């Protein structure tokens, strides 16, 4: 969209992303998936 600027770009997991959700308080995005042979969950603002 031309009227919006990208604030930040993250690569939270090096492998496949299985799920992407907002945290219950709506302050963070939580990502789960595979990373270097193990399951990972990451949260970021």
UniProtKB/TrEMBL annotation:
Name of protein: Anaphase-promoting complex subunit 4 WD40 domain-containing protein
Keyword Repeat: yes
Organism listed in the record: Aegilops tauschii subsp. strangulata (Goatgrass)
Any single GO CC term annotated in Swiss-Prot or TrEMBL for this entry: cortical actin cytoskeleton
Single GO BP term: actin filament depolymerization
Keyword Metal-binding: no
Keyword annotations: Repeat, WD repeat
Molecular function via GO: actin filament binding
